[in-house]
Amino acid sequence: MVNTTADRKVTMSITLLRILIGWHFLYEGVTKLYNPEWTSFGYLASAQGPLKPVFTMLAQEPMLQWVDVLNMVALLTVGITLLLGIFERKGALVGIGLLSLYYLAHPSLPGVHQINVEGNYWIVNKNLIELVACILLFNFPTGQFFGLAYFRKGRLTKTQQ
């Protein structure tokens, strides 16, 4: 027997998580979009860990311009899809990829000097936590419960009848 009250609470909790993460990504993307002086140069140039050479290369022109644009587009895409609850699995995948890159640029691994980070971490940091949350959102999409996917699903069901 399925406990529908518990299922509903879990769905509501995951939906709230989806909306909050969507807001976070959207806000980050919008602030970067409307700040003409923003660049990812500092973050990339100060990268640490085993992939430092890759991120250092990305911090050089002309790659940096592309990285900045792609970063903003990815942030906005994740934000819009998760906040609105449509194509959220695709948005969650983009979020997973983006957060993986953020984590790998500044891994909180033992022996890696941490610079350009907000706190003191050991293996687990906020990027890794949000990455795992995006994995949860990928596996349990909630747009059909609360989001534009709900309306899209209803319209598809009516046209199939």
From TrEMBL:
Membrane topology value: Multi-pass membrane protein
Localization, UniProt: Membrane
Family matches, as Pfam families: DoxX
Alphabetically ordered keywords of this record: Membrane, Transmembrane, Transmembrane helix
Superkingdom as given in the UniProt entry: Bacteria
Major subcellular site: membrane
Membrane-crossing residue ranges in chain numbering: 63-84, 91-109, 129-151
InterPro entries according to UniProt: DoxX (IPR032808)
Protein name: DoxX family protein
